[in-house]
Amino acid sequence: MEWLIISLAILLVLILGGVGYVIDKGRKVKRLTDKPEVAPRLDKKSDRGSTPDGTGTATKTRPGTKATGTKPTSKPGTKPATKTTGKPTSTKPTSTKPSTTKPGTKPTPTKPPTTPTPPVTDSAASTTADEATVDGTTVDETTANEATVDGTTVDETTTADPAATNAVDDSSTIEVPDSPAGINDTIAPPEPELEAEPEPEPEPELDTPPSTVGRMGRLRDRLARSNSAFGRGLLAVISKDEMTEDDWEDLEDSLLQADVGVAAATHIVEQLRTKSMVEGARSSEQIKALLAAELTEALGADWDRSLTTNRDDGPAVVMVVGVNGTGKTTTCGKLARVLVGDGNTVLMGAADTFRAAAADQLATWGERVGVDVVRGPEGADPASVAFDAVKAGKAQGIDTVLVDTAGRLHTKSGLMDELGKVKRVIEKQGPVDETLLVLDATTGQNGLVQARVFTDVVDVTGVVLTKLDGSAKGGIVIAVQNELGVPVKYVGIGEGKDDLAPFVPEEFVDGLLQTGS
Ligand SMILES: Nc1nc2c(ncn2[C@@H]2O[C@H](COP(=O)(O)OP(=O)(O)OP(=O)(O)O)[C@@H](O)[C@H]2O)c(=O)[nH]1
């Protein structure tokens, strides 16, 4: 009996042992078969990681976040390890979406590829830790990391969700190279194309204006053509064999028609009659010679027609004034050429701020001979422009500053006062050496009325008689001088750039009577 009990006990132990072994085996088998079940849980978590906002997934693909050393897969769609270390080849410089950050975490600021960003591994690690928390279950860090590094899971996610794949790709684009050298290799900005050195503009060829010496003589034919009626009328009268009383009267009429003026015409005829009688001149050639001498005398052969063009203590200042359209600006331009041709340095001041084109016109004239123009904005105070021009001329050691002024009607007292102001303001810099009144020869006696008003306001030192080439009334020169008591210093005999000549009475008369031909 005792033996039987012992045998049963042994049998029981054996049975229990066998059962235990089987159970244990079964558990092991179960554990083995249960392991894949973990994956769905982790997959689920991975899915959550790529939640609708698309964040998290990209971070998970980063091999840099590996904690267990599990081999990353190299399936398509996953980023090769080299990319996480910032290797340049697949970096997409355009894709720096902050969507690669997890909700609640600070979005990675979008930065240009060259801007260093925080190390990816740190960010990824913290993301992994966050996941462990977000999961809501107690997941040890290793499991969390496993989830992170489970290439299969990630691959499934990225394959299933193209957007997530993009996110993965995008995430890699914000990764920075390990070294500055890497940066340079990858995203060095394209070499800026060196701009071709601009060809230096060729120096404009400057004109060399011809000397003014004998210029009027060279232009005598043009003067003769214009005044041919005047000249022919005079010659026709004096070509008679013997001058009668009527002939002397006809001669006086011819002078009056040429705008010589009554007093001057009467004086000229009286002088001529007397001299021809005294000298016994009878032939037309003799009378013609006497007439030429008389006209030259009337033109004031002794007048000082020189222009002050430089001074020791600063630039000579020449102001150009007159009514609208007489040719002031043109005269300034031509005069600049004359002065340059005579060896002076010149600066022009565009004080005609009323007519915008005047300054441009002046600049064009200046460019041809290398003369600068000081100008102000349209409508600027002409006095201040004139002041600035003279100041600049002084600073630059210029010989002559030419100041063009706006045309103004002599009847407008406000405008005439303005002219007085311009002169006074210039005088704060130094004296105005010359005030040239520009008169249009074709306006005849009306020009004299204008001239009188101008001389009252500004001290006119000389007259420029323009458009003499288009006038049959060359006698105006005599009238102007007699009326104003100031000499005609220059005459305009055409629109050409060098058609301004210093006035020389002998040559004027020569052109008129064709005595030299
Ligand atoms: N035929 C001829 N035309 C001239 C002469 N001088 C000037 N002109 C012309 O006269 C016109 C007026 O000349 P501008 O110099 O513009 O006259 P301006 O006095 O400055 O004019 P405003 O500024 O409006 O007062 C232009 O067409 C010139 O070419 C000249 O001696 N002969």
From TrEMBL:
Q: Where is the composition biased (Low complexity)?
A: 55-108, 120-129, 147-170
Q: Where is this region: Disordered?
A: 34-215
Query: What ranges does the record list as Acidic residues composition bias?
Result: 192-206
Compartment(s)? Cell membrane; Cytoplasm
* Residue intervals of the SRP54-type proteins GTP-binding domain: 315-514
Q: Where is the composition biased (Polar residues)?
A: 135-146
- Membrane-protein topology: Peripheral membrane protein
Q: Which GO terms describe its molecular function?
A: GTP binding; GTPase activity; signal recognition particle binding
For bias kind Basic and acidic residues, which ranges apply? Answer: 34-50
Alphabetically ordered keywords of this record: Cell membrane, Cytoplasm, GTP-binding, Hydrolase, Membrane, Nucleotide-binding, Receptor
Biological process, per Gene Ontology: SRP-dependent cotranslational protein targeting to membrane
**Gene3D superfamilies attached here?**
P-loop containing nucleotide triphosphate hydrolases, Signal recognition particle SRP54, nucleotide-binding domain
The chemistry this enzyme catalyses reads:
GTP + H2O = GDP + phosphate + H(+)
The AAA+ ATPase domain sits at 314-465
UniProt: GTP binding residues: 322-329, 404-408, 466-469
Entry's EC annotation = 3.6.5.4
Domain Signal recognition particle SRP54 helical bundle spans what residues? Answer: 219-299
Q: Where is the composition biased (Pro residues)?
A: 109-119
Question: GO CC: one term?
Answer: cytoplasm
Family statement drawn from the similarity comment of this UniProt entry = Belongs to the GTP-binding SRP family. FtsY subfamily.
**How would you summarize the oligomeric state and partners of this protein?**
Part of the signal recognition particle protein translocation system, which is composed of SRP and FtsY.
Under the heading PANTHER family, the entry gives: SIGNAL RECOGNITION PARTICLE RECEPTOR SUBUNIT ALPHA
Function of the molecule: Involved in targeting and insertion of nascent membrane proteins into the cytoplasmic membrane. Acts as a receptor for the complex formed by the signal recognition particle (SRP) and the ribosome-nascent chain (RNC).
**NCBIfam families referenced in this protein's UniProt entry, alphabetically:** ftsY
Protein's name in the database: Signal recognition particle receptor FtsY
Taxonomic source organism: Epidermidibacterium keratini
Q: What is the lineage of its organism?
A: Bacteria, Bacillati, Actinomycetota, Actinomycetes, Sporichthyales
